[in-house]
Amino acid sequence: MTEREDLLQALQERLQRVTAGRSLSPVLEKAAVAQAEQLVATLRGDATDLQVMHLLGWLNWYRYLALPKGRDRAALEASIDLFTPCFMNGIEAFAPRFRHGSELLPEPLLPILAEQAVPTATELLGWVRGTADPEMLSATIQLWRRILSATPADHSNRAVRVSNLGIALQTRFECTGAITDLDEAIQYLQQAVRSTPVDHPVRAMYLFNLGTMLQTRFERTGAMTDLDEAIRRLQQAEQAIPADHPDRAMYLHALGSLLQTRFERTEAMTDLDEAIRWGRQAVQTAPADHPARAAILNDLGIALRYRFDRTGVMADLDEVIRQLRQAVRTIPADHPSSAMYLSNLGGALQSRFERTGTTADLDEAIQLLQQAVRITAADHPNRRIYLNNLDTVLQIRREI
Fold it and tell me: In angstroms, what CA-CA distances link 304 with 70, 71, 153, 278?
C-alpha cells in the first residue's frame, strides 16, 4: 500500500470509531492531527483528490463538534473548504467507501456548501449556454440540482436558483431535443414565478423566460394550450416590466409575435389587431441602435400585411411599406435575413401597384427582388422563392 492509502485507512478507522462509539475523542488525539497533516501533504495542491478531501472534511467536522467554543472556528472553516469540492463534483461517485453514519456530508453544512457552490455554478451556466457539450451540460444541471436540494424553502435566493436550473435544462433541450428536459424546465420556471412576489423586479424576467419556453414547446408539439399560456405569461411580463427598461421592446415584440402566431392558427382578428398594437409599441420603444430593431419592424410589417390581405384597407398596406422600408434600411447588407426583408418589401410594393397602378412601385419592387436574388447563395432554400417572385413582377411589367 502507498503512504496515501495507509493514511486513508488509518483515518477511516479513526472516524469509524467515532461513529461506532458515539465519542469524538478519537479526532482530538495527537495522532489524528499528525495523520491529517501527513494526508494533507499528499495532496500537494491537488484539488481533485476528492476521497482525501472528503475524509479530511469529516475529520475537521468532528473536531469542530468536539472542540470548545472559541477554539472550533478553524476546524469548521477547514471542513467547509474541504467539503465544497466534494459537494460541487458529485460526491455520490466515490463516497460510499468513505461515508460516515447515514450522511455523505454533514447535513448542517449543506446550505453553506450550496452557497459556496453558487458562484461556480453560475459561471458554468453562462459558459454552457454557448456550448453544445452534453457532458458539461449534464454536470451543470446536476450541480444546480444539488444546490437547490440544499437550499432552504425560505431562502431569499431560492427562486433564482430554481430559475437557473430551469435555464440549464432548457439549454440541454436545445442541444439534445429531449422534450423531458423542456417539460422539467417549464415546471421549474413556473415554480420560480409562483415563489416571486408580484412587485419583485426580477419577476418580469421569469415570466418572459417561462413564456418563451412554453412557446418552444408549442412549436414542438402544436399544443394550443401552451400557446395560450405563453401569451398569458408574456402579457403578465409586459405588465411587470418598467416602461424604461432596456428589454421592454424585446418583451413587446415577443408578445406581438405570439399573438400573430395564434392568429395564423385561429384567424381571430382580435389577436391580429393586438399583435399590431404591440408591434407598434415595440417599434416606438426600441432605440435606433437596438440589435433587434430590423426584426421588430419587419414583423410589424408582416402583421399589417396579414390585415391588409383580409380587409383591403390601403392605410395598412401603406404602413406595411413604411415599416418594411425602415427594416431594409436598418438591417446590414450582409445579414442572413437581408434578402428576406428585401423580398417582403418588394412583394408589398407589387401589391400596391396592383391596387393603384403606380409604375414607380412596380419598378422599385423589381429592383428589390433583383437584389434579393443577387445576394442569395445558389444553394439557399429561399432562392427559388425569390426567383419566382422576380419572374412574376417582370411578367407584370412586360404586360403593361
Answer: 73, 74, 48, 12
pLDDT tens digits along 143-180: 999 999 999 999 999 999 999 999 999 999 999 999 99
Query: For residue 49, what is its C-alpha cell?
Result: 483528490
Q: Which three cell numbers stand for residue 317?
A: 398596406
What three-state secondary structure class fits 220? helix
Mean pLDDT of 251-264: 98
Q: pLDDT for 316-329, tens place per residue? A: 999 999 999 999 99
Q: Where are the alpha helices (DSSP H) in 177-313?
A: 179-194, 203-221, 224-240, 248-266, 269-285, 293-311
| 338: nearest Cα among 346, 328, 347, 348 | 328
Element holding 364 (H helix, E strand):
helix 359-374
pLDDT at res. 342: 98
For residue 183, pLDDT beyond 70? yes
pLDDT in the model for residue 230: 98
List the grid coordinates of 62: 468532528
Do 207 and 237 contact (CB within 8 A), yes or no?
yes
Give the C-alpha separation, 106 to 83, whole Å: 9
Nearest to 205 by CA among 237, 239, 167, 253: 237
